[in-house]
């Protein structure tokens, strides 16, 4: 099946791989019907080995990965997995990522699932291929398969010493094999590539200015587009004065479709200048809630359904009969993704076929969305991943692609669109506001008898986020709200006798929602672990011992015990050693079993709080991390460090601001993030379990940071922070409230 | 009206035709000369991704108009070192694996190179202060600081 958008020649040219008719199966399984002698397109069927792998005549391996590297090192990890299972050197493996004509749809690269799901699909495909190659070698060399070992892509008979290479066995031909879920995997004890800190393959090119990011990508004849967004998010375009930009050198066109407005020019600076100078009149629109009343707005938003995510025992009765009741409300601000490089895409439309180069984390989804928006059959759209600046979720890349598609359609030339900083901060989809109520009850013996929580969060799941251009231009787009898997970690890992956790799903949220690193898990774990600390103080327990007591999970307990050592935790009731100076230090614990089934993280945060200014400095984090089998230890450490630093930034500083019409935090001054002088130190202990499944490491550490900081602040100054971000103003406000209560 | 300007970039003189003398240097480097080291991040001199050396000083090319460049030599990441002859910072960033997405890394290396040229044995706090105007979103800061310390040590060795 040749993709209709591609001629065979283009296919060969673009990929360097031509799959011709002789299949391995025709060699290894006599009687099997060859696939014919005509050129066959690359299969995308995730059940086929060929979907993931090809080997050329020289033995070079190409991996086709639907999971893409968003700056996390996944390309290196995938290379390690394939090289290990095939017994070839890392240098002989190349990876093609996220090309809808070449790579299987393995789902978006999100949710810390790239290694866990995509990597394991690849491993099984490689194991299937390896077994088939050995079987074929045995046949050719007239020996039993068990007689063979593989090294550097050479299959050699132990007894005769005769050998044959992968390239000779399959070079340039397809495997034509179903992925065998029972194909034998190499024993982890024999690994020499997986489990090692193989250096990231992309770093040299990146430090010498040779790497081609999406933002660098060009095709012949390319022109530059920029978008002009409404002055109010729901405003209507009333008029455009094209004469306002006609003098700009190289100006090609002002493009208007409904409320979608853009400019195209021969040069990038020309397009930027035109977008700045274009005179347009928009209607007034002030449909956003007042920011100062955001949480009242969220609480009063219509609930379309309740999702009960756990229900054990009889919570209402247990709460009613509890000796001591505690309750608290937590909120977590709206966040922007804030990639350092704004979203960018190139779209070329030739003879009705669309090619889109994008840093999208989900090119297969993007392909469908572009086809829908342009009213084209999906076969006429090819989306190709090109790595961009760090991507932490569904940011603006897909929207930039849609912008480029509308502009390319209008001018009949390939168009590159890069968003300006204000486009990125102002118009990327946002991490939605999260409001959480929690109650708990203690009995007369200070045992926890009830835990009840209610989450006020938008409806929807991790689907496709509606394309901004489609929305503005009133083109076909049918996506419902897609805030991500924000129900995760609403339920808790602790075995209290009565537990009920329920999410009130809201009909709407102020901004187009999407997922940003650890969506929902971050906000929900903040409330869960911060409120748990309130219980721990109420019962006078040790934060680590208390967690272990209620976990019923040996692996989780091991993480926490290791944390005791790593953090040199001196078992003491919280607030035992209060400092009374202006700058006081505190430590706080937090823990997560991500989504209650995978990666474990335990953390101790150390903070310094200035009681005069209210400023918090997070100075140190101790992190114990168990993600099962580790593919690349340094890669995991890099992710853990990044999760800590990024989430400290989110927790201490970040909040999208807005007026009734639009976002007002549109640059790095109005939306500040953590800077070098503010970064913490991070100590990490990895628990490697080579015989266990590899789980994700791209997100889970983020989830424990907010509560670890909040709990450390309480340890320092005896004040609960329940509203992210923990700005100096909020700290002082909380101190004033606590002081007031103490006086009463 | 288009004017012709001569730029000295990475030791070579390049002729650039400019429609608008207010166009920032960044666009000449990237779009006209095809360099990929300096990157567009904000266009506001707030993040540092576009940093290049102008007369040895680290400057933000996204807000430096072409008219202000004149004949002062420009050095970009490509001119700092090559795979065959890496600058100590480039080698240190590889050795410390001090990259996640790497989009900001141009700015980190160029800022640090100008800083180390003036301060050969900085403390960790001085390094952090020197990079206070360079933003990284992936949270690679710890590795970046380690890499700069390593480069300083290697240079002094």
Description:
Chain A is an alpha+beta fold and 744 residues long. Helices cover 30% and strands 22% of the residues of chain A. Chain A is built from 19 helices and 25 strands. The longest helix of chain A is centred in the first third of the chain and has 28 residues, at 114-141. The termini of chain A are far apart. By secondary structure, chain B is α+β, with helices and mostly antiparallel strands. Chain B is 36% helix and 15% strand. In chain B, a hairpin with a 2-residue loop joins strand 3 (51-54) and strand 4. The longest helix of chain B has 16 residues, at 141-156. The termini of chain B are far apart. The chains are: A alpha+beta (744), B alpha+beta (157). Chains A and B meet through helix 6, helix 7 and helix 17 of A and helix 1, helix 3, helix 4, helix 5 and helix 6 of B.
Rg of chain A, nearest Å: 28 Å
E-strand count of chain B: 5
| Radius of gyration of chain B, whole Å | 15 Å
> What's the mean pLDDT score of chain B?
97
Structural class of chain B: alpha+beta
Provide the fold topology.
The complex is a heterodimer of chains A (744) and B (157).
Chain A: H1 8-15, H2 24-28, E1 53-55, E2 61-65, H3 74-86, E3 93-97, H4 114-141, E4 148-151, E5 154-157, E6 163-165, H5 166-170, H6 203-207, E7 223-227, E8 237-241, E9 251-257, E10 260-265, H7 268-277, E11 279-282, H8 294-300, E12 303-312, H9 315-321, E13 324-332, E14 344-350, E15 353-358, H10 363-374, E16 381-385, H11 397-411, E17 415-418, H12 421-427, E18 434-442, E19 448-458, H13 468-472, E20 499-506, H14 521-539, H15 543-551, H16 554-566, E21 583-593, E22 600-610, E23 616-626, H17 633-652, E24 681-687, H18 700-717, E25 723-724, H19 728-743
Parallel strand pairs in A: 2-3, 7-17, 13-25, 15-16, 19-20, 23-24
Antiparallel strand pairs in A: 1-2, 4-5, 5-6, 7-10, 8-11, 9-10, 12-20, 13-18, 14-15, 14-17, 18-19, 21-22, 22-23
Helix pairs in contact in A: 3-4, 10-11, 14-18, 15-16, 17-18
Chain B: E1 3-9, E2 12-18, H1 25-32, E3 51-54, E4 57-60, E5 74-75, H2 77-80, H3 88-95, H4 105-118, H5 124-130, H6 141-156
Antiparallel strand pairs in B: 1-2, 3-4, 3-5
Helix pairs in contact in B: 3-6
